[in-house]
């Protein structure tokens, strides 16, 4: 039995009936984490996967439903790290998933460089000094680049990945120019991209991007993904993706 703090609850992840420990006082997983887990290329059996900014472990746990590869996660916030470790234990995934309490900016000194097949990241979306910073420290760190920038993430990803290894990233379309510029700066050639729209008549509010280390130029644009119908229900495609019946490969 896994201990829960007074402000914690058990929720179900949408894939394979996994459980996750969450709390209203820290940042919880949302649709972007689910889409990232269904967008990332994964080796079926052998291999190494690293999830940066892993939070309470949602992406790492969902990735484990699609691969037998070893999965690691890096999280700087001790509270979220502890929740992720307990969620891994709760789902009996200790042999596959390892969570590290780590500043990702120091990852190159700790982990084996050029050894990972896949890196995933659902990072803070906002530069440190833009928008209104949340007074809740956990929310502020999750939303703003207080402890890592987009460039930090891409630099570390490039260092960890094998040649032809892949980075899968979810972000905001407003940062797309920055993302593509930095991907090429760090030799992570953009290979796949999918824009996610809340409704068919609304501008995209998420973008999923894959970069391949030392890949050849050949960017494939996937069909746009529409999240909700006019009646505020998941679209049929979103239901299939959300519940593990379809990926975004």
UniProtKB/TrEMBL annotation:
<dbReference type="Pfam" id="PF05175">
    <property type="entry name" value="MTS"/>
</dbReference>
<feature type="domain" description="Methyltransferase small">
    <location>
        <begin position="22"/>
        <end position="172"/>
    </location>
</feature>
<protein>
    <submittedName>
        <fullName>tRNA1(Val) A37 N6-methylase TrmN6</fullName>
    </submittedName>
</protein>
<dbReference type="InterPro" id="IPR050210">
    <property type="entry name" value="tRNA_Adenine-N(6)_MTase"/>
</dbReference>
<dbReference type="InterPro" id="IPR007848">
    <property type="entry name" value="Small_mtfrase_dom"/>
</dbReference>
<dbReference type="InterPro" id="IPR029063">
    <property type="entry name" value="SAM-dependent_MTases_sf"/>
</dbReference>
